[in-house]
Fold this sequence. Notes:
The complex is a heterodimer of chains A (about 325) and B (about 325).
Chain A: E1 4-15, E2 18-30, E3 35-39, H1 46-54, E4 61-69, E5 72-73, H2 79-88, E6 90-93, H3 97-100, H4 107-119, H5 123-136, H6 142-145, H7 155-167, E7 173-177, H8 185-202, E8 205-210, H9 213-219, E9 222-227, E10 230-236, H10 237-242, H11 247-255, E11 304-307, E12 311-313, H12 319-322
Parallel strand pairs in A: 3-8, 3-9, 6-7, 7-8
Antiparallel strand pairs in A: 1-2, 1-4, 4-5, 9-10, 10-12, 11-12
Helix pairs in contact in A: 4-5, 5-7, 7-8
Chain B: E1 7-18, E2 30-42, E3 47-51, H1 58-65, E4 73-78, E5 81-82, H2 88-95, E6 98-101, H3 115-126, H4 132-145, H5 162-174, E7 180-184, H6 192-209, E8 212-216, H7 220-226, E9 229-234, E10 237-243, H8 244-249, H9 254-262, H10 268-273, H11 304-308, E11 314-317, E12 320-322
Parallel strand pairs in B: 3-8, 3-9, 6-7, 7-8
Antiparallel strand pairs in B: 1-2, 1-4, 4-5, 9-10, 10-12, 11-12
Amino acid sequence: MSLIDVKNLKVEFETAxxxxxxxxxxxxxxxxxxxxxxxxxxxxxxxxxVFGMTGLLDHNGSATGSVKFEGExxxxxxxxxxxxxxxxxxxxxxxxxxxxxxPYVRVSKQMTEVxxxxxxxxxxxxxxxxxxxxxxxxxxxxxxRIRMYPHEFSGGMRQRVMIAMSLLxxxxxxxxxxxxxxxxxxxxxxxxxxxxxxxxxxxxxxxxITHDLGVxxxxxxDMLVMYGGxxxxxxxxxxxxxxxxxxxxxxxxxxxxxxxxxxxxxxxxPGNPPNMMKAPEGCPFAxxxxxxxxxxxxxxxxxxxxxxxxxxxxxxxxxxxxx
Amino acid sequence: MxxQPILEVKNLKVNFDVSxxxxxxxxxxxxxxxxxxxxFSLNAGETLGVVGESGCGKSTLARAIVKMVPAEAGEVIxxxxxxxxxxxxxxxxxxxxxxxxxxxxxxxxxPxxxIGEIIAEPLRTHYPKTPEADVQARVIDVMNKVGLxxxLMNRYPHEFSGGQCQRIGxxxxxxxxxxxxxxxxxVSALDVSIQAQVVNLLMDLQEEMELALIFIAHDxxxxxxxxxxxxxxxxxxxxxxxKSDDIYKSPSHPYTQALISAVPIPDPNVEKNKDxxxxxxxxxxxxxxxxxxxxxxxxxxxxxxxxxxxxxxxxIAQDHSVACHFHD
Lengths: 323, 328
């Protein structure tokens, strides 16, 4: 049984200018112990997909469809039940650790209250567990540093504190929303290594949201490419990098300059990302796609198998014409 | 003329005064060395890439060259004249020749001016007597150059996307026909597909107009793509300077090596099998930099001499200099 199973997920926002559909018809499932990367540019709906799944949408947003976690429907549950799930089974870390931590409260209090509230352990036990968790994320001198305030930590250390906090209740699934975007490359390498080690030690699954194709290549088993609120391609990371079958994935891969390669000119994708207020009918990528045919502008393509090993693509143009 | 560098920076130093919490009014402010002893030269048509992590002094270096922050010591020699020794009004003629573009494209455009006015402003400031028809013609000319339709001239910045705003910033920098453009993280705020468009645009313009560029970014892959030579900074100090291929193929400084190994390569086969050199810990405080070599606190090769003696920045091969006692 898969850990999480998403069917026909749709996320819409009611705004003063009308309804914006941020996520359309998203279907995917993920197995236990895997790392799934969701890749896309800003506004592609990658964050809203997981916010919709976990009930964290803004007050004007609504999600429809079905999200099954360990076989149980969790979409649009009551806040109380969702809080229980989000505390014990699904944890989340965000891009900017400073905005996720309370600047007025010592790290010790912020960490122990998770355990005291959700698992009813005593204060001293909670402190002990928190210190050992800070050790696990390799914060030196954890027993002293736990008494510090968030501003006394550096950016990389703060992200470690966030990771430690999210793991306190031993979640089954960790959702990491751009966890290293605000960090320098050398720190990013440390954090990604740490996440990979923790994933093995704790046996959890990770959904990694990122726009950095390099990070995805190094750390995920499966990947999902989003554009304009829809899934363009989904499959094993190695397969997608080896042979991207969707024009958008291909464009994205060749637009990134590689350090180990010196091409004269970058390949660009002409045009700009779609305005979701008036999302194009049909395939969202059609206006920028060099392969687009008439059908692309009227009918939205659905995900179909691209090859035998769980590789799916959403494109009207056949794979052979693109490769 | 072509072999004569257009810009030469010699031993540039920038310090900031900082006071910390609990200081008495009479306590002497501490010195933060943001840029320490940086020297390089740049020829026409060349691109110097400047890389380093946040807080290493990349932007301060750029600002010191155009005198947006005062330098403590050193020389900035532009076409034979030391800019730092000139007064404000004496600097003016040279400002036309050096222009800047910034990271956040929207924040660097005045929201109450339309695009035509924004792009024309440098021209109107430096050549106030230009007839209006000529100004309009020049604006249209640079807009076409950067790939903007000239009928967008009466629109306002908020109506444009990030990539287009960056094109507007580039057009504004180009209108004075500068010889050098300093780009401070010009593509960091853009999506990859747009980033590639802007990088290509800058490279095309450089070829067409014989521009020299100083390209500051933290993304080593982009910097390597666009630059002729690359300077690596750490805590305000130069650690390595070499041709961009050499920096990637034979990095000599332990920090450069770690930095290069930390850059993720978008290819699972390469990425999952590479030897990652992790550097432990965090950047030390620039108010209290380590004695001797600034990188020694995180360096795997550090020995006693590194704490005692600051390594000299010296050439180890042609066009390749490094500051390390134990370089490869």
